[in-house]
Amino acid sequence: MTIGNLTAIDVTVDVLRNAELVFDHCLEKISHCLNQLADEQVWWRPHEEQNSIGNLLLHLTGNVQQWIVAGLGSVTDVRDRPSEFSTRGPISSDELQKDLRKTVEQAKNILHSASPESMAKTYRIQGFEVSGWCALFDCIPHFKGHTQEIICLTRMQLRQNYQFHWQPQTPEQGAPVDP
């Protein structure tokens, strides 16, 4: 396909496919962190007023459910946002991860079947009047941001024992060049 022949459907399909890839990459990074932590570490907080990884996982699940699954998908919004932050565990990391993955899969299914018209339509989500595109472009950076926060909290706890998800292998990727 050439640029000059792109249709609204082509662009919608491509953007939504890439949104699905962002969700998948973030889930990989989150899983990589959780696999290095004990359940108690998932609920650790650097300070009482800050969130734990467990809270962030609950929050991501709630946000994706509200903005994509319920917001764009015509299902009932069941989000309890205050409990995402007040919960102190113990919910296992396996259960948290399973719930997040299930919600992201539901969101990806909705995005997979979205049309240019449905993405341009106005929705009322969390009290805001937004287009489907706006909902998506709100949800994706939010998801990526909290993924980075989960990585940071994991690194804070594991320090030198943290195992990186990815490291550059070639000079093009940023690996050191041998002298």
Describe this structure in words.
The model has no long low-confidence stretch (mean pLDDT 95). This protein has one domain (8-161): Up-down Bundle (Four Helix Bundle (Hemerythrin (Met), subunit A)), CATH 1.20.120. The longest helix is centred in the N-terminal third of the chain and has 27 residues, at 8-34. Strand 1 (122-125) and strand 2 form a beta hairpin. The termini are far apart. It is built from 7 helices and 2 strands. Strands 1-2 form a two-stranded antiparallel sheet. The radius of gyration is 18 Å and the shape is flat. With 179 residues, it is mainly α.
Q: Mind sketching the topology for me?
A:
Blueprint: H1 8-34, H2 39-42, H3 53-73, H4 81-86, H5 93-112, H6 116-120, E1 122-125, E2 128-131, H7 132-158
Antiparallel strand pairs: 1-2
Helix pairs in contact: 1-5, 1-7, 3-5, 3-7
Number of helices: 7
The name of the CATH superfamily reads dinb family like domain
How much is the average pLDDT?
95
C-alpha geometry = flat
The figure for the number of domains is 1
Short description:
With 179 residues, the protein is mainly α. The chain has a single domain (8-161), classed as dinb family like domain (Four Helix Bundle (Hemerythrin (Met), subunit A)).
Any key phrases for this structure?
179 residues, mainly alpha, Four Helix Bundle (Hemerythrin (Met), subunit A)
